[in-house]
Amino acid sequence: MAEKQTETAKDKKGTKPSKNAWLKYTKAEKKAVYDFAEGYRKFISDCKTERECTEEILRMAKAEGYIDLKEAVAEGKKLSAGDKVFVNCMGKAVALFLLGTKPLEDGMKILGAHIDSPRIDLKQVPLYEDTEMALFDTHYYGGIKKYQWVTLPLALHGVVVKKDGTVVKVVIGEAADDPVVGITDLLIHLSSKQMEKNASKVIEGEDLNILVGSIPLKDGEKEAVKENILALLKETYDITEDDFVSAEIEAVPAGAARDFGIDRSMVMGYGQDDRVCAYSSMKAMFELKEIDRTAVCLLVDKEEVGSVGATGMHSRFFENAVAEIMELCGGYSGLKLRRALANSQMLSSDVSAAYDPNYPAVSEKKNTAYFGKGLVFNKYTGSRGKSGSNDANAEYMARLRAAMEKHKVTFQTSELGKVDEGGGGTIAYIMANYGMEVIDSGVAVLNMHAPWEITGKSDLYEALRGYVAFLKEL
Ligand code: MN
Ligand code: MN
Fold this sequence. Notes:
Elements: H1 9-12, H2 27-46, H3 50-63, E1 67-68, H4 69-75, E2 84-89, E3 93-98, E4 109-114, E5 119-130, E6 133-141, E7 154-161, E8 167-172, H5 199-202, E9 210-213, H6 224-237, E10 247-253, E11 258-260, E12 266-269, H7 272-287, E13 295-300, H8 317-328, H9 334-342, E14 345-349, E15 352-353, E16 375-378, E17 382-383, H10 394-406, E18 411-413, E19 423-424, H11 428-432, E20 437-442, E21 444-446, E22 453-456, H12 457-473
Parallel strand pairs: 1-2, 4-13, 4-14, 14-20, 15-21, 16-18
Antiparallel strand pairs: 2-3, 3-13, 5-6, 5-10, 6-9, 7-8, 7-10, 11-12, 12-22, 16-20, 17-19, 21-22
Helix pairs in contact: 2-12, 7-12, 8-9, 10-12
The chain binds manganese (II) ion (2 copies).
């Protein structure tokens, strides 16, 4: 563990022995914890889609001196130690490279996380009218408990791409005087049948219809309420009903993330899985000015639906980027590329399930993650007999322990719940396919995949410190 700890009798009976990070901070450090969390709170309040995250991350990276790999390739620019390069993958995924003094084939130190989050997407033909109400038909994205997404103020974020290629950005429901939209639920008075259904059937996928209007257009035709909504969209965004075919609009919880708890020790916000790891990984990258082996921060899309597609971790975009950089660093070769990947180490960061005192039955107390106990390492995830997990090597874990201890990072180890209780997956196993050392790590979260998730500020801060320690020591 990060600090020498004395096990109490209670510890031995099954409470994990580890010191709460809050207890180690000086007044100045505590301020640093709160300040860092405030920057994070603003980031997740403003960035609620993978596109918005990518845009903001690239803005910050450019301010840190990162240059576009595409431009470097076009100009035939030579790259060398200390150069900072970014890769923008279709506006939905990002890779940041800080080039090291050692050749790429010595391997890279990679911080990975994902920037997509569970949400409710509009269908390609979304708008309809029913009994003089206008609604959007939706298809949810990622694993959600559908009943959690009704009776909430929702905002619409996304893009509509017109036939001429014009990209129209849409954000409705975030400004204080903006309207919000949402999904209705049945009143309790008439719910006797609904209340008998099991939780997965209470609200079904096709019931997630977003109410967006109720005023009929004067002199309108049959569907005058829908016509009125289309007229408003035309006026505000210059888009037509057909344009939804080439749109990506995501319904997400409306409003800013908030400090949580009377002691302000936590943050409640949407999309903390996995932006809590993405933000801290990116900030750790920015703390390093020079490095021995090349550092990478890889922030990808589509993790919540299996890491598929061009912007997900299964895509070759990262491997291609390394090949391009290798060429600009003095010469690409297939063998060198393979060595670069196989000699790498990675922290595949994603959220862990935090121990919840309301639901103790699903966790095994010695091997679960707790708020306040810092950066989480999951040697393996998966389900049943570790199916689908990336089981990190003990040798690698030992190096990480040493790095964390050297930098006095508070960390903990964890599994996702009790054996046979369920399970989950991350991007770890995909990168491990290159033969590199990969381990799952990250931040503990409560309410995972709910509209409003909760993280602990000290855990966020220890994640940052842990990522910096990783980049410095590995
Ligand atoms: Mn998730
Ligand atoms: Mn995740």
